[in-house]
Task: inverse folding
């Protein structure tokens, strides 16, 4: 099993979903992610640059190095950053388990929605710690699909979500990793670890979140594993379609949706 398999795939639709997710959650996840002028920051697993744009905008005088294992993702990230006229970042293809940097060469490390896809997340965190300067910080952000609840409730929707959780586990990932962030960072040797829950609550009074998160981020993410879920035999087509319809139902005028992300901070 490759440590870099990505359950959501690399389609254009997935790229759009990642951007919707980043833009919708900017305030919730990144309002307190600011790096000092002159600091050198590694973004590990930048993907298509959804978070990179936000990071470089929030800390315009910091120097970023963004890495990813996928050359196609890096190409899209570079294009996206150029379109925003951000000049404080360089990109490099690299494996975070085999980083091409000297020890203690970064002031800070940022990793977001990456650990959930790795079979050895604690080892990845340990590798990242090696390139941090003494006293440097690592920021890690992950979700937890087990934190999902909504109204109206639906057994079929929960089954569809569980398909995604199971498929991710099958290739070595963990869609429930948010609840493990603190012990993982502790195991990797970080000091003064703190983890804060960041809950997304959505109802009709927050139309931007209805569209940006419930529909275009979470429901779109679940819909993306339809073929794999059906082919695996975990769920039948009728139950799947009912589950997706129920998730979409939560975005109507009387629906609500909740999900929790977890943001960890630790020092070397």
Result:
């Amino acid at each position: 099993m490759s440590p870099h398999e990505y359950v959501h795939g690399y389609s254009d639709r997935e790229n759009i979903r990642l951007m919707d997710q980043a833009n919708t959650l900017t305030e919730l996840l990144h309002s307190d992610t600011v790096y000092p002028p002159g600091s050198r920051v590694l973004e590990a697993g930048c993907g298509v640059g959804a978070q990179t744009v936000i990071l470089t905008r929030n800390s315009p005088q910091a120097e970023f190095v963004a890495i990813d294992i996928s050359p196609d993702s890096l190409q899209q990230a570079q294009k996206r950053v150029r379109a925003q006229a951000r000049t404080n970042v360089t990109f490099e293809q690299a494996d975070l388990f085999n980083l091409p940097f000297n020890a203690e060469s970064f002031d800070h490390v940022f990793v977001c929605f990456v650990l959930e896809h790795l079979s050895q997340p604690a080892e990845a965190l340990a590798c990242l710690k090696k390139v941090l300067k003494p006293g440097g910080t690592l920021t890690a952000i992950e979700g937890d699909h087990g934190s999902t609840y909504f109204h109206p409730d639906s057994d079929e929707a929960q089954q569809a979500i569980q398909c995604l959780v199971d498929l991710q586990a099958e290739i070595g990932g963990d869609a429930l990793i948010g609840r493990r962030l603190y012990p993982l960072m502790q195991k990797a040797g970080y000091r003064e670890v703190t983890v804060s829950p960041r809950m997304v609550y959505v109802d009709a009074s927050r139309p931007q979140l209805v569209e940006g998160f419930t529909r275009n981020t979470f429901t779109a993410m679940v819909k993306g594993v339809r073929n794999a879920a059906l082919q695996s035999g975990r769920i039948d087509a009728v139950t799947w379609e009912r589950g997706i319809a129920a998730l979409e139902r939560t975005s109507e005028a009387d629906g609500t949706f909740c999900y929790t992300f977890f943001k960890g901070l630790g020092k070397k």
Observations:
- Residues 12-267 form a domain with the Rossmann fold fold (CATH 3.40.50.150).
- The chain has one domain: 12-267.
- The CA atoms of residues 122 and 187 lie 7 Å apart.
